[in-house]
Amino acid sequence: RLCEIVEDSTDVRRLPALQILGFHRQWLAKSSQLERVLVWVRGEDDPEAATAIAWMLRGREVLQQLLLHPVAGVSREAAIGVPVGAATLDALLDALLVGRSPDVDRILTQRLSTLHPSLAASAVDHILGVADRVTGDALSHVLGCLPQQSLFELFVEGRSRPAWTAEPSAADTEGLQRWHHVARQASQVLLRA
Question: Among residues 4, 10, 82, 76, which one has the least CA distance to residue 46?
């Protein structure tokens, strides 16, 4: 019955219905219900209702899809609620590198600082893939959020450095140049730490 209220855009009880559904999240265990909620958030025009829907999804990986949502409340709730792990790492990094808003950036910075060291290499791989499309300040900020010991091992000790080849291709050369650029940024971050 509550879902029917939510799906009726003329019903004035929509927001309280969303809040009740958010408090009782067990019904989201079925993937069909989760897809239903994603349809709601994608088509929602009311910022308060969209934010309530994002809050309803706390702790679920699908929130990574909402980190760059145009409604500030939705992206904030997504930043608070998205779990930090291998499945969401790329989306977290991308959102932080793009810079959604100061509030969301602060939340994502705090969340990324809890990253398990075992995921640092995956984070660095992703950063190396996008480093040529982001500003140096954003790159330094994200590198500063990563576990510092892992950053040292990956860049100063060179564990993330691309393998040497006798006859490098253009792509190999570009990858090595990108690695050196990010390694310089990482070294500066480590010196400031």
Answer: 10
* 178-184-186-190 Cα dihedral, nearest 10 degrees: 170
pLDDT in tens, 110-128: 999 999 999 999 999 999 9
Helices 102-112, 89-98: axis angle to 10 degrees equals 140
CA 96/CA 109 separation, integer angstroms: 7
Show the tokens assigned to 32. Answer: 């069909």
Query: If DSSP codes are grouped into helix, strand and coil, which group holds residue 85?
Result: coil
pTM: 0.86
Rounded Cα–Cα distance for residues 65 and 165 (Å)? 38
- State pLDDT tens for residues 167-179: 888 888 888 888 8
Residue ranges of the alpha helices (H) in the chain? 2-7, 14-23, 31-43, 47-56, 72-81, 89-98, 102-112, 120-130, 136-145, 148-151, 170-192
